[in-house]
Amino acid sequence: MNRYPFLLLSFALACGGSQTQTEPRFVAVHNALSAMGLAQTGPISEGSLPEGAEARIEVELQAGECYTFVALGSDSVEDLDILVLDEAGEEAGRDVTHDRQAAARVCAETTGTHTAVVSMTEGRGGYLVSSWSGAPAGGGFGGRMVAGGGAGSTCAGARELTFGQPQSGDTTGGTNAMQAPCAEGNAPENVYRLDIEEPSQISIALQSSFDGALFITRTCGDVASVVACNDDAQDTSHSRIDTTLEPGTYYVVVDGYGNAAGAYELVATRTTLRPLAEVCADAPALQVGQPVSGSTQGAADYFQATCADGARMPDRVYRLDVPQRSRLRLRQQTDHDGALYLRSNCADATTEVACNDDFRDVRGSIINTIVDAGQYFVVSDGFGASGQAATGNFTLEANLAPVAGGGVQADSCGNAVALDPGAQDLDTFEAGDDLAGSCGGQGGADVVRTFTVRNRSRVVIRVRDAEFDGAMYLRRTCGDANSEVACVAVPVSAPRTQEATIDETLVPGTYALVLDGARPDSFGAAQVTLEMTDLVAMERTCRSAPMLRSGQTVNGTTAGESNDFQASCAEGARSGDVVYRLRVARRSRVRIDLTGDYDGALHLRRDCVDATSEVACNDDVDQNNRASRIETTLDAGMYFVVVDGFREGSEGSYSLQVEIDRP
């Protein structure tokens, strides 16, 4: 028996291609569909349509019966479509092919007048429409039509999903009443009812012949009540949800991405949750200073939190014993969107001490706080309850320090440590409170670094990735608050990396840099970068810089060059650079083009050593990071053109060209 009636319909068209050949075409269609177990339910409707026109045919359908509408076009027809509307004018079924033949299957939910709309989408000519009732032998229509109604395709007809018993189905012919929140589109869906009698960890796996999606909702038809959703699990033909459900009735919806539909297999398994008291009693100890690795994959969702959208994902819990009132630092790194929180009573969510979702990015979490002596519980969890990429591997570490801190290296002016040019990690976690700046730092832990300026220099100090909020200040004499040169606030880097900068021109001497916390519970690590540009040497470089001329192409390389210049674009342009002089004799239109084999940047100044005299800066041209261009009108005078690179470490060979024209 042929399961694909479109092959038979193609044969029927071959038997006749015009409106005058109705009878042989009808005979071919009748024989083909009758052989599949279908029975003709009404007369044949014929007519002719120009391109873009439609014809409406009213038909009486009986509730509970399924009907197949078949439309055939003549040889001059390129695309014929058919759409079936119910009594309310809502879509009940439609054709999704691009062909001169069309079919739509409808399972009527009510008895009454339906309307078959035949549309001449492309081409023109004759058409023939007939309707048939019954189900095709062998099932399926090759995925070539979309139909409405049918058991399992609506909330009212939801099938029961039994744990441990694979369910096979096909969304082709299902209704499109809901949209998966994790998969956009208008694909048809099938619905299953899932009854949960006791708190359980549920795993539902979908394997589909199409780009499938899977979601669970408390109220069928209400997407706002979705508790978990997954589009792709490893690939587009698999979806998986691992979640914890309380007793009640839920609905499992098999959906598709976009308009995808087809056959699938669905399997649900269940594990009854252990009593929370048992889980807490079995929590392994988290040893101070000893990182522990684990995974939330396959775990149950026993705990929730005030951050991370409730942290309603599978989780792991650890016990932490604190012998005396202490500073506590908890750090977590994951391969998923993780979350971290701390409780004083494992089974009581109201005893949450602290909660952090993102530090620097979604894979990092950190808690810095002061805790009393006692037993605490640390939970590694995931963001929200989407069921998508919020479980996986994690590494967790706990550290304790005295509340007052002190006695560690670089803790005060008396034991300050040298700060070398480049990036270094500074940590105030174990430091005491010795100093305060004009912009903050009173009561917070602080550390001191010193550096020496040998010639008049531009000094840039940046703080990134700070685990705490506080202040950074610069002094000529460490213990003398009146010698403060600059003070800036330091923001905590959550949820994304933020930066604080001191940018000063300093005379020769030794300076003290202090990194300080805003409060007693503001402590932790940060990355500090020191850049010093010798302005005396820079002035010599500027005076001897090569002269650029209009129409001239200059080739060179920034590889191995020092970072003497920074800019307002290219994220600071803190890469190796080369400077040129450019003399403009009269007010002119100037175009400067840079091309290279690296991510270059180009900036223009009036004063070679003064960054505030920047006239223009460009990183990329038309999203091409290998090209930069400055095009502007300049007054007569001397200018300085700097060939630079994006951020740090972008260096290589380049070509530079200048064109000067009267405006």
Descriptive overview:
With 663 residues, the chain is mostly beta strands. The protein folds into 5 domains: 5-147, Jelly Rolls (Sandwich), CATH 2.60.120; 159-272, Jelly Rolls (Sandwich), CATH 2.60.120; 276-402, Sandwich (Jelly Rolls); 413-533, Jelly Rolls (Sandwich), CATH 2.60.120; 545-661, Jelly Rolls. Helix content is 6%, strand content 47%. It contains 4 helices and 45 strands. Strands 1, 2, 4, 7 and 9 form a 5-stranded antiparallel sheet that branches. Strands 3-8-5-6-10 form a 5-stranded antiparallel sheet, with no helix packed on it. The protein is flat and about 100 Å long.
Output the keywords.
663 residues, mainly beta, Jelly Rolls, 4 helices, 45 strands, flat
Low-confidence stretches: 1-23, 136-151
What name does the CATH topology of the largest domain carry?
Answer: Jelly Rolls
Structural class: mainly beta
What overall form do the CA principal axes indicate? flat
Profile the largest sheet. 5 strands, antiparallel
The whole-angstrom Rg is: 36 Å
Oligomer: single chain
Number of spatially distinct domains: 5
Overall mean pLDDT stands at 87
Helix content: under 10%
**Separation, N- and C-terminal Cα atoms:** 81 Å
CATH architecture of the largest domain: Sandwich
Q: Helical segment tally?
A: 4
Strand share of the residues? over 45%
CATH class of the largest domain: Mainly Beta
Please tally the β strands and state the result: 45
